[in-house]
């Protein structure tokens, strides 16, 4: 049975090691606990595929730790700013996730503060694991639907001028469950030139471990044909040039 610990438990060992990861003073822990209450967080559950100090979490990045939390009876994903993060607060990440949400991409932003971002909780598996487990009748159709959704979301981000920044390593940044959702916008930017469609296409379709698995399920066009369509898209950045990429991949 899933156990949610009250906020008062998070300032005590062993859970204080997560609330103030990798190290925090008692004053910092108390301040963070107060901030969590102001955001409406009622409890945190320590589960997930990663372990920090023998405690399970949903994810870990260079700027934050993600854990499962709840507001009332609603499960949410809680991102905790690391105390050694190069970022002084979560304001920029909140803006970036909000920009993605405006075009229907990413987990829904619920609330945020100096040290936390509260988001929609997405149950599912990462794209690499999902493709690895894909077998049986209709696999190619399911896989094509996923690739089309990912690339279409990338096009929406390109159009919005928001560069995700980590899609060359897409295996960690797409969750597949009830929905297909791009996650983790901590390295995103509204200031640099976008390369979401090209980065994601290269990561899924051109010369990676994921590409080999994809090609076993759904026969990909020749690599040079994909590269040519992507070059054309990169130059023109139009809906037609994006549709041409989908056409080459037989995703239309």
What characteristics describe this protein?
elongated, alpha+beta, 252 residues, 3-stranded antiparallel sheet, 6-stranded antiparallel sheet, Transferase(Phosphotransferase), domain 1, Phosphorylase Kinase, domain 1
Oligomer: single chain
The fraction of residues assigned to DSSP E strands is 15-25%
Q: What structural category characterises the helix and strand content?
A: alpha+beta
Radius of gyration in whole Å, from Cα?
20 Å
Series of secondary-structure elements, N-terminal to C-terminal: HHHEEEEEEHEEEHHEEHHHH
Count up the domains.
2
Poorly predicted regions: none
Do you know the CATH topology of the largest domain? Transferase(Phosphotransferase), domain 1
Q: State the name of the first-level CATH class of the largest domain.
A: Mainly Alpha
Instruction: Give the N-to-C terminal Cα separation.
Output: 44 Å
The portion of residues assigned to helices is: 40-55%
On the 0 to 100 scale, the average pLDDT is 96
Q: What's this model, at a glance?
A:
The chain is an alpha+beta fold and 252 residues long. It contains 10 helices and 11 strands.
Furnish the topology, listing elements before pairings.
Elements: H1 7-10, H2 16-19, H3 26-38, E1 43-45, E2 50-52, E3 55-57, E4 59-60, E5 64-71, E6 74-81, H4 91-102, E7 109-112, E8 116-120, E9 124-126, H5 127-133, H6 139-160, E10 174-177, E11 180-182, H7 196-205, H8 209-217, H9 223-236, H10 239-248
Antiparallel strand pairs: 1-5, 2-3, 4-5, 5-6, 6-8, 7-8, 9-10, 10-11
Helix pairs in contact: 6-7, 7-9, 9-10
